[in-house]
Protein backbone atom coordinates (compact mmCIF):
# COMPACT_ATOMS: atom_id res chain seq x y z
CA UNK A 1 0.00 0.00 0.00
CA UNK A 2 2.51 2.54 -1.08
CA UNK A 3 2.17 6.23 -1.69
CA UNK A 4 0.17 7.55 -4.58
CA UNK A 5 1.91 7.21 -7.91
CA UNK A 6 2.89 10.18 -10.06
CA UNK A 7 1.53 10.38 -13.60
CA UNK A 8 2.40 13.39 -15.74
CA UNK A 9 2.77 15.58 -12.69
CA UNK A 10 -0.49 14.46 -11.09
CA UNK A 11 -1.10 12.15 -8.19
CA UNK A 12 -3.26 9.18 -9.08
CA UNK A 13 -4.66 6.42 -6.93
CA UNK A 14 -2.67 3.22 -6.98
CA UNK A 15 -4.65 0.02 -7.40
CA UNK A 16 -2.05 -2.61 -6.55
CA UNK A 17 -0.41 -2.27 -3.14
CA UNK A 18 3.07 -3.58 -2.58
CA UNK A 19 3.53 -6.14 0.15
CA UNK A 20 6.35 -4.57 2.20
CA UNK A 21 5.60 -5.43 5.80
CA UNK A 22 2.56 -3.22 6.29
CA UNK A 23 0.44 -6.16 7.44
CA UNK A 24 1.74 -5.78 10.99
CA UNK A 25 0.17 -2.31 11.05
CA UNK A 26 -3.16 -3.73 9.90
CA UNK A 27 -2.95 -3.27 6.13
CA UNK A 28 -4.28 -6.27 4.24
CA UNK A 29 -3.02 -7.66 0.94
CA UNK A 30 -4.78 -11.02 0.77
CA UNK A 31 -6.75 -12.03 -2.29
CA UNK A 32 -10.50 -11.95 -2.05
CA UNK A 33 -12.86 -9.16 -1.10
CA UNK A 34 -15.75 -8.63 1.26
CA UNK A 35 -17.39 -6.67 -1.55
CA UNK A 36 -18.14 -9.88 -3.41
CA UNK A 37 -20.74 -10.48 -0.69
CA UNK A 38 -21.28 -7.27 1.30
CA UNK A 39 -20.64 -3.53 1.41
CA UNK A 40 -18.29 -1.80 3.84
CA UNK A 41 -21.00 -2.42 6.49
CA UNK A 42 -20.99 1.07 7.98
CA UNK A 43 -24.16 0.51 10.04
CA UNK A 44 -22.88 -2.77 11.46
CA UNK A 45 -19.52 -1.24 12.32
CA UNK A 46 -21.24 1.67 14.06
CA UNK A 47 -23.43 -0.68 16.10
CA UNK A 48 -20.46 -2.85 17.06
CA UNK A 49 -18.26 0.05 18.15
CA UNK A 50 -21.14 1.47 20.18
CA UNK A 51 -21.64 -1.90 21.86
CA UNK A 52 -17.94 -2.52 22.55
CA UNK A 53 -17.34 0.89 24.10
CA UNK A 54 -13.85 0.28 25.52
CA UNK A 55 -11.26 1.06 22.80
CA UNK A 56 -8.66 -1.30 24.30
CA UNK A 57 -11.02 -4.30 24.16
CA UNK A 58 -9.36 -7.44 22.82
CA UNK A 59 -10.32 -8.94 19.48
CA UNK A 60 -12.15 -11.74 21.31
CA UNK A 61 -14.52 -9.19 22.85
CA UNK A 62 -15.72 -8.16 19.39
CA UNK A 63 -16.25 -11.80 18.44
CA UNK A 64 -18.27 -12.42 21.59
CA UNK A 65 -20.34 -9.26 21.02
CA UNK A 66 -21.34 -10.34 17.52
CA UNK A 67 -21.55 -14.12 17.80
CA UNK A 68 -22.74 -14.60 21.40
CA UNK A 69 -24.47 -11.36 22.38
CA UNK A 70 -25.84 -10.83 18.86
CA UNK A 71 -25.31 -7.07 19.16
CA UNK A 72 -26.02 -6.72 15.42
CA UNK A 73 -29.41 -8.39 15.69
CA UNK A 74 -28.75 -11.15 13.16
CA UNK A 75 -31.31 -13.92 12.73
CA UNK A 76 -29.05 -16.96 12.79
CA UNK A 77 -25.75 -18.18 14.16
CA UNK A 78 -24.45 -18.48 10.60
CA UNK A 79 -25.20 -14.85 9.71
CA UNK A 80 -23.60 -13.72 12.96
CA UNK A 81 -20.46 -15.66 12.09
CA UNK A 82 -20.39 -14.34 8.52
CA UNK A 83 -20.91 -10.76 9.72
CA UNK A 84 -18.01 -11.13 12.11
CA UNK A 85 -15.82 -12.59 9.38
CA UNK A 86 -16.58 -9.71 7.02
CA UNK A 87 -16.16 -7.00 9.66
CA UNK A 88 -12.82 -8.42 10.74
CA UNK A 89 -11.65 -8.56 7.12
CA UNK A 90 -12.64 -4.93 6.60
CA UNK A 91 -11.49 -3.42 9.89
CA UNK A 92 -9.24 -5.95 11.70
CA UNK A 93 -11.07 -5.35 15.00
CA UNK A 94 -7.79 -5.82 16.84
CA UNK A 95 -6.34 -3.09 19.10
CA UNK A 96 -2.89 -4.53 18.40
CA UNK A 97 -3.19 -3.25 14.83
CA UNK A 98 -2.52 0.52 14.54
CA UNK A 99 -4.86 0.82 11.56
CA UNK A 100 -7.83 -0.26 13.69
CA UNK A 101 -6.66 1.29 16.97
CA UNK A 102 -6.32 4.69 15.30
CA UNK A 103 -9.70 4.23 13.60
CA UNK A 104 -11.27 3.89 17.05
CA UNK A 105 -9.30 6.89 18.30
CA UNK A 106 -10.71 9.21 15.65
CA UNK A 107 -14.12 7.48 15.60
CA UNK A 108 -14.75 8.55 19.19
CA UNK A 109 -13.46 12.09 18.68
CA UNK A 110 -14.91 12.91 15.26
CA UNK A 111 -18.43 11.47 14.79
CA UNK A 112 -19.00 13.55 11.64
CA UNK A 113 -15.99 11.86 10.02
CA UNK A 114 -17.11 8.27 10.64
CA UNK A 115 -18.22 7.43 7.08
CA UNK A 116 -14.85 8.52 5.70
CA UNK A 117 -12.92 6.91 8.54
CA UNK A 118 -14.63 3.60 7.77
CA UNK A 119 -13.97 4.03 4.06
CA UNK A 120 -10.27 4.69 4.62
CA UNK A 121 -9.86 1.65 6.85
CA UNK A 122 -11.79 -0.59 4.47
CA UNK A 123 -9.73 0.81 1.59
CA UNK A 124 -6.42 -0.34 3.06
CA UNK A 125 -7.87 -3.79 3.76
CA UNK A 126 -10.08 -4.62 0.77
CA UNK A 127 -8.47 -5.11 -2.66
CA UNK A 128 -11.61 -4.65 -4.77
CA UNK A 129 -12.45 -1.40 -3.00
CA UNK A 130 -8.95 -0.17 -3.84
CA UNK A 131 -9.34 -1.33 -7.42
CA UNK A 132 -12.64 0.51 -7.85
CA UNK A 133 -11.36 3.79 -6.39
CA UNK A 134 -9.85 5.26 -9.59
CA UNK A 135 -13.09 4.58 -11.46
CA UNK A 136 -15.17 6.47 -8.90
CA UNK A 137 -12.70 9.24 -8.16
CA UNK A 138 -12.33 10.24 -11.81
CA UNK A 139 -16.05 11.00 -12.13
CA UNK A 140 -16.92 14.68 -12.17
CA UNK A 141 -19.23 16.16 -9.55
CA UNK A 142 -22.82 15.51 -10.62
CA UNK A 143 -21.83 12.94 -13.25
CA UNK A 144 -24.10 9.91 -13.42
CA UNK A 145 -22.54 6.74 -12.04
CA UNK A 146 -22.99 3.66 -14.23
CA UNK A 147 -22.88 0.29 -12.51
CA UNK A 148 -22.53 -1.39 -15.89
CA UNK A 149 -19.46 0.73 -16.62
CA UNK A 150 -17.98 -0.29 -13.28
CA UNK A 151 -18.61 -3.92 -14.17
CA UNK A 152 -16.71 -3.44 -17.44
CA UNK A 153 -13.90 -1.70 -15.57
CA UNK A 154 -13.58 -4.57 -13.09
CA UNK A 155 -13.61 -7.12 -15.91
CA UNK A 156 -10.70 -5.28 -17.56
CA UNK A 157 -8.76 -5.33 -14.30
CA UNK A 158 -9.45 -9.05 -13.73
CA UNK A 159 -10.19 -10.66 -17.12
CA UNK A 160 -12.32 -13.76 -16.78
CA UNK A 161 -12.07 -13.86 -12.99
CA UNK A 162 -15.74 -13.21 -12.24
CA UNK A 163 -18.99 -14.52 -13.66
CA UNK A 164 -21.49 -11.97 -14.94
CA UNK A 165 -23.68 -12.41 -11.87
CA UNK A 166 -20.72 -11.98 -9.53
CA UNK A 167 -19.58 -8.88 -11.39
CA UNK A 168 -23.07 -7.43 -11.11
CA UNK A 169 -23.42 -8.06 -7.37
CA UNK A 170 -19.86 -6.92 -6.64
CA UNK A 171 -20.35 -3.68 -8.56
CA UNK A 172 -23.62 -3.13 -6.69
CA UNK A 173 -21.91 -3.64 -3.33
CA UNK A 174 -19.05 -1.32 -4.28
CA UNK A 175 -21.52 1.35 -5.38
CA UNK A 176 -23.26 1.05 -2.01
CA UNK A 177 -19.97 1.47 -0.17
CA UNK A 178 -19.07 4.58 -2.17
CA UNK A 179 -22.55 5.90 -1.36
CA UNK A 180 -22.08 5.23 2.35
CA UNK A 181 -18.78 7.11 2.24
CA UNK A 182 -20.36 10.11 0.48
CA UNK A 183 -18.62 9.77 -2.89
CA UNK A 184 -21.90 8.83 -4.58
CA UNK A 185 -25.43 10.00 -3.91
CA UNK A 186 -28.85 8.63 -4.85
CA UNK A 187 -30.59 5.27 -4.89
CA UNK A 188 -31.74 3.93 -8.24
CA UNK A 189 -29.81 6.65 -10.06
CA UNK A 190 -26.50 7.50 -8.44
CA UNK A 191 -24.39 10.54 -9.19
CA UNK A 192 -20.90 11.54 -8.14
CA UNK A 193 -20.96 13.75 -5.10
CA UNK A 194 -18.23 15.30 -2.99
CA UNK A 195 -17.43 13.44 0.19
CA UNK A 196 -17.05 15.35 3.44
CA UNK A 197 -13.55 15.69 4.85
CA UNK A 198 -13.17 16.38 8.56
CA UNK A 199 -10.28 17.01 10.91
CA UNK A 200 -10.40 13.41 12.09
CA UNK A 201 -10.53 11.87 8.62
CA UNK A 202 -7.65 14.04 7.43
CA UNK A 203 -5.61 13.08 10.49
CA UNK A 204 -6.36 9.39 9.87
CA UNK A 205 -5.44 9.69 6.19
CA UNK A 206 -2.17 11.38 7.16
CA UNK A 207 -1.49 8.60 9.65
CA UNK A 208 -2.00 5.91 7.00
CA UNK A 209 0.37 7.78 4.71
CA UNK A 210 2.90 8.06 7.52
CA UNK A 211 2.83 4.30 8.04
CA UNK A 212 3.63 3.77 4.36
CA UNK A 213 6.63 6.10 4.49
CA UNK A 214 5.30 9.47 3.28
CA UNK A 215 6.69 12.52 5.06
CA UNK A 216 6.39 16.31 4.92
CA UNK A 217 4.25 17.73 2.14
CA UNK A 218 4.05 14.28 0.50
CA UNK A 219 1.74 13.26 3.32
CA UNK A 220 -0.83 15.56 1.73
CA UNK A 221 -0.47 13.92 -1.69
CA UNK A 222 -1.07 10.26 -0.86
CA UNK A 223 -3.91 8.13 -2.16
CA UNK A 224 -5.55 8.36 1.27
CA UNK A 225 -5.76 12.15 1.18
CA UNK A 226 -7.03 11.96 -2.40
CA UNK A 227 -9.95 9.84 -1.18
CA UNK A 228 -11.11 12.73 1.00
CA UNK A 229 -12.27 14.79 -1.98
CA UNK A 230 -10.74 17.99 -0.62
CA UNK A 231 -8.08 20.39 -1.86
CA UNK A 232 -4.51 20.49 -0.60
CA UNK A 233 -5.29 23.75 1.20
CA UNK A 234 -8.37 22.34 2.90
CA UNK A 235 -6.46 19.25 4.01
CA UNK A 236 -3.79 21.48 5.55
CA UNK A 237 -6.42 23.55 7.37
CA UNK A 238 -8.08 20.43 8.75
CA UNK A 239 -4.69 19.02 9.81
CA UNK A 240 -4.06 22.26 11.69
CA UNK A 241 -7.46 21.84 13.37
CA UNK A 242 -6.60 18.26 14.36
CA UNK A 243 -3.32 19.49 15.78
CA UNK A 244 -5.07 22.17 17.86
CA UNK A 245 -7.34 19.47 19.26
CA UNK A 246 -4.28 17.48 20.31
CA UNK A 247 -4.98 14.54 18.02
CA UNK A 248 -1.76 14.88 16.02
CA UNK A 249 1.25 17.19 15.95
CA UNK A 250 1.40 19.38 12.87
CA UNK A 251 4.12 21.98 12.39
CA UNK A 252 4.46 24.23 9.39
CA UNK A 253 7.24 26.65 8.56
CA UNK A 254 6.67 28.04 5.09
CA UNK A 255 6.57 25.05 2.75
CA UNK A 256 8.18 22.72 5.28
CA UNK A 257 5.71 20.40 7.03
CA UNK A 258 6.20 18.04 9.93
CA UNK A 259 3.42 15.70 11.05
CA UNK A 260 3.81 13.39 14.04
CA UNK A 261 1.48 10.95 15.80
CA UNK A 262 2.75 10.58 19.37
CA UNK A 263 -0.55 9.23 20.75
CA UNK A 264 -1.13 6.63 18.05
CA UNK A 265 2.01 4.47 18.00
CA UNK A 266 3.90 2.42 20.56
CA UNK A 267 7.70 2.44 20.70
CA UNK A 268 7.78 -0.95 18.97
CA UNK A 269 5.53 0.34 16.20
CA UNK A 270 7.70 3.42 15.73
CA UNK A 271 10.63 1.06 15.26
CA UNK A 272 8.63 -0.74 12.58
CA UNK A 273 7.97 2.61 10.91
CA UNK A 274 11.69 3.34 10.89
CA UNK A 275 12.27 -0.08 9.34
CA UNK A 276 9.75 0.78 6.62
CA UNK A 277 11.79 3.84 5.72
Structure commentary:
This protein has 277 residues and is mostly helical. Among the domains are: 25-112, no CATH class; 199-276, Arc Repressor Mutant, subunit A (Orthogonal Bundle), CATH 1.10.10. Helix content is 49%, strand content 7%. The protein has twelve helices and six strands. It has helices at residues 42-51, 59-67, 77-91, 98-109, 114-125, 127-137, 147-157, 164-180, 199-211, 223-226, 232-244, 267-276; strands spanning 5-7, 10-12, 184-185, 191-192, 249-253, 256-260. The strands form three sheets. Strands 1-2 form a two-stranded antiparallel ribbon. The protein has a two-stranded antiparallel sheet with strand order 3-4. Strands 5-6 form a two-stranded antiparallel sheet. α9 crosses α11. The radius of gyration is 18 Å and the shape is globular. The two termini are 14 Å apart.
Q: Number of helical segments?
A: 12
- First CA to last CA: what distance? 14 Å
Round the mean pLDDT to the nearest integer and report it: 92
Order of helices and strands: EEHHHHHHHHEEHHHEEH
Main beta sheet:
2 strands, antiparallel
Apparent shape: globular
Structural class: mainly alpha
**Radius of gyration, Cα only, in angstroms?**
18 Å
Which structural traits does this protein have?
single chain, two-stranded antiparallel ribbon, two-stranded antiparallel sheet, mainly alpha, Arc Repressor Mutant, subunit A, disordered N terminus, 6 strands
Give a short summary of the structure.
With 277 residues, this protein is mainly alpha-helical. 49% of the residues lie in helices and 7% in strands.
Topology (elements, then pairings):
Layout: E1 5-7, E2 10-12, H1 42-51, H2 59-67, H3 77-91, H4 98-109, H5 114-125, H6 127-137, H7 147-157, H8 164-180, E3 184-185, E4 191-192, H9 199-211, H10 223-226, H11 232-244, E5 249-253, E6 256-260, H12 267-276
Antiparallel strand pairs: 1-2, 3-4, 5-6
Amino acid sequence: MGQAMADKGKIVLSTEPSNNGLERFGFRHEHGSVHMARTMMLNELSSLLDYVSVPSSASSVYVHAVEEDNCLGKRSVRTRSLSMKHLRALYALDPQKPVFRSLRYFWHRDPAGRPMLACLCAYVRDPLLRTSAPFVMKLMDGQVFSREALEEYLEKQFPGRFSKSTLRSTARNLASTWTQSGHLAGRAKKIRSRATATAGSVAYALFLGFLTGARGTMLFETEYIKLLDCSFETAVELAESASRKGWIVFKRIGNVFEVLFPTLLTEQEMEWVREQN
